[in-house]
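Section 5: illustrative case.
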C-alpha cells in the first residue's frame, strides 16, 4: 500500500503498516515521524542481495541488542519489543528496497511479513510502528 493511499497520521497506531514510497519520499516520512517524536531508523538496501546482507545492514543501522541473532526470529522478536530504541513509536525507512526485491524476492517477501507482523503487534499495544520501503514508481507493489 502506498503511503499516499490513505490520509496517514503517524501518531495513530490504527494507521500502522508497511508502505511503499518513492525514494525521495523517505525524507518526508522521516520528517513527519520525527515531528511525532517517533524513533526513526534508516536502512539503506542499495546493492543488498540476500538475507545475510539484509540482516547485517539492519543490525548496523538499528541499535539492536548486542546479542541479536541475525535470523528472522531474532528480527521479529526485536521489532516486537523495541526496547533497544526507546521511543513511544517507530518508523523504519528502507532506501533502495528494489535492490533486494530484484536479487532475492523470497527474502524480500519474508521481510515484508516480519514488518507486517511487527506493525500489527504494535497496533495491538496502541504503539505507532511504520515501515516505509522505497520502490521505483515502475516497480509493481
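Designed sequence:
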Amino acid at each position: 500500500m502506498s503511503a499516499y493511499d490513505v490520509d496517514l497520521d503517524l501518531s495513530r497506531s490504527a494507521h500502522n503498516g508497511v508502505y511503499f514510497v518513492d525514494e525521495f519520499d523517505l525524507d518526508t516520512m522521516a520528517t513527519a515521524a520525527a515531528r511525532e517524536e517517533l524513533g526513526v531508523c534508516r536502512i539503506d538496501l542499495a546493492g543488498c542481495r540476500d538475507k545475510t546482507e539484509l540482516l547485517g545492514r539492519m543490525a548496523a543501522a538499528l541499535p539492536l541488542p548486542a546479542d541479536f541473532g541475525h535470523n528472522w526470529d531474532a528480527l521479529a522478536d526485536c521489532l516486537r519489543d523495541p526496547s533497544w530504541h526507546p521511543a513511544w513509536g517507530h518508523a523504519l525507512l528502507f532506501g533502495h528496497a528494489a535492490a533486494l526485491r530484484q536479487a532475492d524476492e523470497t527474502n524480500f517477501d519474508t521481510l515484508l511479513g516480519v514488518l507486517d507482523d511487527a506493525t500489527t503487534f504494535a497496533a495491538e499495544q496502541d504503539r505507532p510502528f511504520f515501515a516505509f520501503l522505497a520502490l521505483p514508481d515502475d516497480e509493481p507493489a
